Amino acid sequence: xxxxxxxxxxxxxxxxxxxxxxxxxxxxxxxxxxxxxxxxxxxxxxxxxxxxxxxxxxxxxxxxxxxxxxxxxxxxxxxxxxxxxxxxxxxxxxxxxxxxxxxxxxxxxxxxxxxxxxx
Length: 119
Known about the structure:
Elements: H1 3-16, H2 28-37, H3 41-44, H4 55-88, E1 95-96, H5 98-101, E2 117-118
Antiparallel strand pairs: 1-2
Helix pairs in contact: 1-2
């Protein structure tokens, strides 16, 4: 398996277990690309040791994480508003996929979501 994917898997595992990854990142550019490609920026940032990664990688992931937090805040507010409106109108509804999965992550922003799925 590709060393970068192994590192990404290990960092992701640490993040989900609220631990800090102690290894090194062998290829910053590839690690960052794979992190973004898989929607994991908000998750992996919390598990990386600032002193063990390059300043450039730290800054890119920090910026991405701030954007994840902003987007998450807006999405949670939208979910709350939609839920309230549908409940008041007595419309049966169920939030699906990301809306529900967010709750099992250490922080809701760590679960990226493109939209709000509703049944």
